[in-house]
Amino acid sequence: MACLSGEYTLTVRAINSYGQQGEPATTTFRINAPAAPAGVELTPGYFQITAVPKLTIYDPTVQFEFWFSEAKIADAAQVETSARYLGTGSQWSVSGPHIKPGKDFWFYVRSVNLVGKSAFVEASGRASNDAAGYLEFFREKIGKTHLAEALWAEIDNSKLKDEMAEMQTTITETRNEITQTVSKTLEDQNATIQQIQRVQTDTNNDLNSMWAVKLQQMQDGRRYIAGIGAGIENTPDGMQSQILLAADRVAFINPENGDTTPALVTQGGQTFINEALIKTLTAPTITSGGNPPAFSLTPDGRLTARNADISGNISASSGTLNNVTIAEDCTINGTMSADRIIGDIVKGYTVDMGQGVMTQNQLTFQKMILLKDNMPFDRKLMLMAYSFSRGEFIMKINDKVVVHARSGKVKTGEREVQISKNASRYEPVYSDVGGSASGSWSIPAGQGDVRVEITFRYEADVLFYMGGSILHDKSKIRIHDPVLFYLKSYTDDFDTAS
């Protein structure tokens, strides 16, 4: 009986021989289609890719369906009609000459159990692009063939007869064509080897020459060909000499040092080279080794590099940079937009006025700061509003007074003053009016360092209080610190001060 998906409650109770029942034990469980794979791990091999799905929580009742495609399928609903079904298992490998390195292949995998199937999960990958590994792979493959064994075998010259060599010379001198054919048939298999040496005259009375060795084998109704040929022809474009190779695989092997690892292999429209020195290379697409590749350059000019050290000039119209450091100066001619800037595009200074000094019946606070900033653009120096109840505030820029503000007094009334037992007079009553200072000033580009001097003075008769009592120790007196901002100027505002 098929089990329907859904939530179930199972109740079990014990019963004895007298029919008495115990307390029931109940549990709730679900029977559902499996969850989709959390991911599919693709392992590259030589002309091979292995897909291993992963579940978030291991379930021994779950298997996986594997589907394969050489092109990406945009709609998951089309997987079963567009992709090739591989089979069901815990993992699957696809291999063969068609799994070429440098080409993307797609796997579509879903979880299956007795209840149902999950949605498909897509994964794309490539075969290994390890050139050295491929050459070793070919060395083993080639070394197991009869042709390789025959090539490596030493020729026994003792079996050759002198008169045979003389006969071959005679045939060459007396005929325009020599064709030698060796053939053998075994059941539905047939193999033929043909060697051709020909010198002929074509319809234009032009002389052509060729030499070729051709191997042909029939099996299961399919023809397989391998051959090598050399020829010289008189064509409409002039004399043409050429050497042609016809084979599924062409390899160059140097037997001198006994190493049978090929230096070059051509198979399936691809060439694998151990090492090359090329003077000029024109390649629409360049891809480095690694999985994923560390470097690639596509025909549309897209350059991808996982780690680049560029010491020359870079010219770009757009792009994105993450976590970069500009080691030296940088010029931005246009507009820069930034969510957050740490640096001196806008410099803020809190000027610590420190401890005052008594001079000429005055308590004076003075501080000089040097703004080291010789930028190629105009700056604005701004003094934030500075208020004080009594005293005098002076600010200089490069020895020029730009702010001079004082506190003042205003008559607020009169008071009666007793001058004798029977006489008095009225004197005006004054209240202090505090002062304030603020302003902004243009600092032209290229002016060099800027000296800013701030001075604040109290008259000696000013009384200072701390905790309700007169403070006689003037060294304990502090004033609040002025605040300056130094920023790039974007307008031609005139200087202001108050």
From TrEMBL:
Domain Tip attachment protein J Fn3-1: 5-34
The protein's name: Host specificity protein J from prophage
Ranges of residues in domain Tip attachment protein J central straight fiber: 193-320
Gene coding for it: J_9
Domain Tip attachment protein J second Ig-like positions: 36-138
Domain of life according to the entry: Bacteria
InterPro entries found in the cross-reference section: FN3-1_GpJ (IPR055383), GpJ_CSF (IPR015406), GpJ_Ig_second (IPR057587), Viral_Tip_Attach_Protein (IPR053171)
Entries under PANTHER family matching the protein: FELS-1 PROPHAGE HOST SPECIFICITY PROTEIN-RELATED, GIFSY-2 PROPHAGE HOST SPECIFICITY PROTEIN J, PHAGE LAMBDA
Organism: Escherichia coli
